[in-house]
Amino acid sequence: LAKTTQPISMDSYEGQEVNITCSHNNIATNDYITWYQQFPSQGPRFIIQGYKTKVTNEVASLFIPADRKSSTLSLPRVSLSDTAVYYCLVGEDNYGQNFVFGPGTRLSVLP
Amino acid sequence: NAGVTQTPKFQVLKTGQSMTLQCAQDMNHEYMSWYRQDPGMGLRLIHYSVGAGITDQGEVPNGYNVSRSTTEDFPLRLLSAAPSQTSVYFCASSSQIGIGNTIYFGEGSWLTVV
Questions:
Q1: Which of A8, A22, A101 should one mutate to test binding to chain B, selecting the residue with the greatest count of B CBs within 10 A?
Q2: Which of A11, A54, B30, B57 pairs with A94 at a CA distance of 20 to 30 A?
Q3: What single DSSP character describes residue A80?
């Protein structure tokens, strides 16, 4: 299993762009990179997934360099409601049992 | 539009009691799993199933039992509750096929063992 390393916490202000980087030096050829968001007292929810280069959806962008040893989740213009824990997961897209959740990054958005 | 449904939401148990956390999904997903999350920690996989009749252990299976008699249901049984099992439990499901399969989580079950 590819181990991931993320900052434990980050602070930001409303309206700013937030970039959360995840290191995964031992990523395997078949591994995908997936980010989840978890609000207090709720289950995690899927944000974005990618394999290489850049992926963008209505919520976030995911940047993956050519060597795939890291990835960056970018949240444009955050609001107070983006305060949550963000998890970077690396694993095969196969049944999901290879996905291991680390402690995540606790993002606090301040007014 | 139910997704993954867990019951009960909250439960208090005495040490040694047994109980079952229920989980049901209506998305016809083959894969289902149970996680526990302790305060300030990430999620740890307890048991998972890749289809009806098939279950396997995750990272922290001791003290828990599962079965998968139907595609929709995946109950988690605590055999003899211990204070160390006080945690929030999340059930999850995903489709086993295709690129970009998302894991869908339930709202969680808060369990306290006294």
A1: A101
A2: A54
A3: G
**Surface of B (60-89) touching A: CB under 8 A:** none
pLDDT < 50 positions in chain A: none
Using one digit for the tens of pLDDT, what is the confidence trace for B97-108?
545 567 889 999
DSSP tally for chain B: helices H, then strands E: 0, 11
A41 CB neighbours in chain B (<8 A) are 108
Name which of A55, A69, A109 is nearest A86 in CA terms: A109
Q: What is the block-wise mean pLDDT of chain B (114 residues), using blocks of 10 residues?
A: 90 97 95 90 88 91 96 96 97 72 89 97
Pairing of strands A9-13, A105-110: parallel
pLDDT tens for B62-76 read 999 999 999 999 999
